[in-house]
Amino acid sequence: MNWLNSQAFTLFGQHIIWSDMVGNILGLITLALGWRRSLLTWPVQFLSGLVLFSAFYGHLAGSAGKQAVVMAVALYGWWQWQRTKGRSEDGHIAPRFATWRERAAMVAAAAAGTVAVALLFKAYPTLSWDPWPDAYIFVGTIVAMYAQAKGMVEFWFAWLLVDLVGVPLNFANGYAFSGFVYVIYGALVLWGMRDWWLRSSKSPQPVLEGAPA
């Protein structure tokens, strides 16, 4: 798998490596499939994580570990969409807005997770080149994938917040292709957000436990 870490080409003076390019192209396809609410979203997400895991394994344990978590969440997302598909008229998962309880839980999990992971990265410097933003992106990605698995429109907002940090961080650390892809992510996120937002108005909203019927 050494070829994954070799240079593919140079773009605008930036060295593009194969793993960065292949993994992120698959990630871009994943986001497009997610916008279409296709069940293929999750196998492609898993494959993207597998490519990056193979590239990092053996010399960047922290990065490989993060991709292992991404693959696990991708399996959860596939299982979740598989068991809930068919709730909308077109046979795909029906988008919905999260309840306030769900939003609070995700924000709390993102905040606590970012602090915990950043402290872990600081304790073991070989796991990350920039602990706090790296932890923010990693935890934000997991939260976004979880919200996506649940069919929540908020997953697009989570991806947008990840993009705001991911773009400059990737360029600053030499992962130029990731930076370019994150810019495209931003456009797809806004487009997908609009689509899911409009579709959510046609979907039944969840009822909180204990709320009056």
TrEMBL record:
Pfam families in alphabetical order: NMN_transporter
Highest taxon of source: Bacteria
Protein's membrane topology: Multi-pass membrane protein
Cellular component GO terms held in the UniProt record: plasma membrane
Main location per the UniProt record: membrane
Gene Ontology MF terms: nicotinamide riboside transmembrane transporter activity
Annotated TM spans: 12-33, 40-58, 104-124, 136-162, 174-193
Family under the similarity heading: Belongs to the nicotinamide ribonucleoside (NR) uptake permease (TC 4.B.1) family.
Protein name: Nicotinamide mononucleotide transporter
